[in-house]
Amino acid sequence: MMRAMLKSALAVHKPWILTGDDNLNLGHPSGTCRFGNDPATSVLDPNNKVWDVGNLYVADASFFPSSGGSNPALTVAANALRLADTIANQVARV
User: Fold this and answer.
1) pTM above the 0.70 mark?
2) 28 a catalytic residue
3) What letter does residue 21 receive in the DSSP assignment?
4) Of the four listed, 2, 5, 7, 31, which is most buried by Cβ atoms within 10 Å?
């Protein structure tokens, strides 16, 4: 019964099939804060800290070079854990 209700409700919508060649990945924006070793060519250092701004780190998908075409949640979470360890180590040294 649920499938029939969904089929009926969704019947008015045109399907959008992603082929891989034209994926726009509108649902997962990323790649807006380049990271690197040179502040002249990047916004973030290799530890996702904003150059020349104390205590400002980027822990979302902004640091990705580009979108991977799939949900980035697990990669974002893994990087956030890596970043948390980095910050904790820096605080411990102070």
Assistant:
1) no
2) yes
3) S
4) 31
Q: Which of 3, 17, 23, 28 is catalytic?
A: 28
Domain ranges of the chain: 25-93
CA-wise closest residue to 55 among 81, 93, 90, 92? 90
Q: How far apart are CA 54 and CA 90, in angstroms?
A: 12
70: confidence class by pLDDT, cuts 50, 70, 90: confident
Q: Residue 93, SS3? A: helix
pLDDT digits (tens, 9 = 90+) for 13-65: 776 665 666 555 566 778 888 889 999 999 999 999 999 998 899 999 988 88
